[in-house]
Structures are given as structure tokens and as C-alpha cells.
Amino acid sequence: xxxxxxxxxxxxxxxxxxxxxxxxxxxxxxxxxxxxxxxxxxxxxxxxxxxxxxxxxxxxxxxxxxxxxxxxxxxxxxxxxxxxxxxxxxxxxxxxxxxxxxxxxxxxxxxxxxxxxxxxxxxxxxxxxxxxxxxxxxxxxxxxxxxxxxxxxxxxxxxxxxxxxxxxxxxxxxxxxxxxxxxxxxxxxxxxxxxxxxxxxxxxxxxxxxxxxxxxxxxxxxxxxxxxxxxxxxxxxxxxxxxxxxxxxxxxxxxxxxxxxxxxxxxxxxxxxxxxxxxxxxxxxxxxxxxxxxxxxxxxxxxxxxxxxxxxxxxxxxxxxxxxxxxxxxxxxxxxxxxxxxxxxxxxxxxxxxxxxxxxxxxxxxxxxxxxxxxxxxxxxxxxxxxxxxxxxxxxxxxxxxxxxxxxxxxxxxxxxxxxxxxxxxxxxxxxxxxxxxxxxxxxxxxxxxxxxxxxxxxxxxxxxxxxxxxxxxxxxxxxxxxxxxxxxxxxxxxxxxxxx
Length: 501
Ligand code: ZN
What we know:
Structural class: mainly alpha
Oligomer: single chain
Number of domains: 2
CATH topology of the largest domain: Neurolysin, domain 3
CATH architecture of the largest domain: Orthogonal Bundle
Shape: globular
Distance between the termini: 46 Å
Order of helices and strands: HHHHHHHHHEEEHHHHHHHHHHH
Radius of gyration: 23 Å
Number of strands: 3
Bound molecules: zinc ion
Strand content: under 5%
Mean pLDDT: 95
């Protein structure tokens, strides 16, 4: 479109204003998660509430509804940037206008305080500290679902905020099938790992050396440090604070460099997606990631399909030895086996690729039960511990190793968790398609050349922004809806097939 109609231009101006306020909220959120002193929490909550209220008011103004209706009458092509923006703005507008401003303010305040208490509760491993805050959050997300409306389950209204169009009734059977597939793999995969000692990689890895090595790996896969940086947090994340500003965080274990390395590969995978979105559309849906399930596919793809491959260690082992001389006593194959050791464990973010999705399925199940009033908040630890033991054969003895380990509930993110597993499924499907479309891909990856894969992802996924819904995007790029086949084939070949890839 050469000249944009006045209604579209007005709408665009308003949406860029909203996006500016949201990006400021992003900056103070990043600060809260990295450097903010604890005593600042109450005032920070006021700051979030102020920005949240203003942004909500601007976005939900009646004038916006009028402009959207005008734009919808223009007959914009659905796959054009303008058409996609109007469709997505409408979706978000309808969701947002159903939430009263007073509700949004209350939710923001509650979340901000709950987050601080969760940190404290996790530190002391005391669920009872967090319990009253979680109760408030669960009440609020139920109210949110009621405001937003849903067909089959209130959970769908929450899930839709992270994975547009996804439904619990499809995820439940998909996960059940996946769980059966994983459980069937788990025994043989553990056997294959049995010869690899758990502490094979334990050693001395100074933080400064880890930082330089991680930065080198992140730059090699294509992360642009002119438009991003890495800081330290307890819970690693990737946040875009504005155009040209993508922040990654990680944590360091001086005895095990793989903790920070793989969290950086993961977060840099998110970062590559963010940096690959079309900059000219920043702050609009056409310049925004399509869903969390697609976002997570990018992080998982770089972390696991690339970073946990045999060829990755064949290439990077000699370089890693420059930074960590202790690794010289190991072969690339030993490092490969050590970073792919299958062993059930308590902490999701430390889980191996085979058991990882079992963690997700449990939290998804607990969330659905909480939202559907089939489980009381006070009973969460007992339920969690019982289910976890059944699934993994491990007894949870402290809440910090169980239901308190993850930040999401404290930030109101109920409905987010299934997107982790959808991400794994999407990653495997995308990787299969990337191989089909690029016969030189494996050779390039073996030589430490990541441009082929990145260029393909840029072209197929990143540049699309939110021009397609997640389901359409997966069908367009991989020829099918998100399913379990590619992921299970990958796990089977890698963990049970003998040699591994
Ligand atoms: Zn992630």
C-alpha cells in the first residue's frame, strides 16, 4: 500500500504510543529482575500500576474501536502488513476492553508484590509465605477469564493471551500422547546414559571465562551485541526493551559452565527471533513475535537441536578448552554425552530433553485444576509432590524444589506453561523442514557456520512477525499443525537410537 488511509495512520500513531509506554514498563521490569534493591518494591508496584493504567486507557479508548471498525471496512488484504496489524489490534482490543481499568490496576499491584514474596518464599522454601498471594492471583485470573469469555474452559481465555487460538481441549490429548511416548523412551534413554557419570563436567570454571565463552558462542550463532547485552539474574530471561535493545540474562555456577552456556543459547535463541523481527514494524503486530509457542521453538532449536548436538561439541570443544583447560581431559563425545545425560531431576530448567516436558505437563495440569476449581491453592504442594513422585520416581522434600521453583505464577502468568512444550514440538518440526529446505545444513552446522539456519529462520519465521496466526505459520512453513511426531522421532533417534545426532 503506497498511501495509508487516514484511519489507519491515526490508529498506527496511537498504537506506537501504547507500545512506547509498554516498552518503558519493560525497562523497569528488567531493572526489577536484575538490579533493583528489595526496598524499592512497593514504589515499583506504583510505577507499574501507573504505566499499566495509562497504556490500558490509551489502548482501550472508544476512539480506537471506531478507528478499527473504519479500517476493517477498507478491505485490506489479510496477509498484508496493514491487514495483519488491524486483525491483531482487533484481537487485543477486544481482549483488553473486556477488562475494567480498576481490574487492570489491581492485577498489576498484586503481581508486583506477589513476585517479591515469591522470591522470599522460594529462598526460604516456604510455600505458606506465597500461598495468600497465589490465592489472590488465582482469583484474579479466574475473574480475568470471566471478563474475557471462553467457550469450553476458562483456561482457554488465559492460554489465548500467550498462544492465540490454542485450546486446552486440544492440548490435553496432545500432551497425553506425548507423555506416553516419553515414558516409553525414558527407560532405554536412561540406560544409554548410565555409563556417563553425573559429575563428569564438574570442575573449575571462573565466571569471567564463562562470560567470554558464552558471548563468543552467542555472537557465533548470530546474536547482535550492538543491539543487546547479557546480565545476571536467578531466573534467566530475554526481554526486548525497545527497538535495537534485546536483553538476555543468565546465572553462573563456577563448578559447571553448562548451566550458563545453555541458558545463554536458549535466551539467545529468543533474542535472535526478536532481533530478526522487521525493525520498521517495531511496536506493531507485524514487528512482534507471533506467540510464545513459536518464541519457545526458537530458543529450543538453538539450545537443543544446535547446542546439544554432537557436531556442536566436535566444533566447540577445542575452543572451550582455551577458556576451560580442565576440559582437555575429555573428548568432544564425552562432553556431548554429559550434556545429554538423561536423569529425572527436580528443577525444570535443569531437566534433560527427555524428562523436560513431564515438568511442563504437571504444571499445566495443576494450573487447569486451579482455574477450574478442582484444586485448592493450599493443596498445591501436596498434589505437586505426589504427582511428581509418581511421574519421576523422586520425592520432593522442599517446596523450592517443587511447586515454588518457577516464577510464572507470581507474575500472573497462568496459561503460559504449555507454550514451553508447544515450543519443543514446533522446534523439532521446524528443524525437520530446515533440513529439507537446506541440503547443506548439517555440513554448515558441523563447520560452525550458523548463517544458513539463521537465514532460513529469518525468512520463514522471524520476518513474518505476527502476519500469520501460529497455527497458520506452522502449516505454511512445515506443512502441518503442531504435533508430536517430529519431536518424538528426534528424541528416539538421539536418546535411544545409539549414536545420536
Ligand atoms: Zn524460553
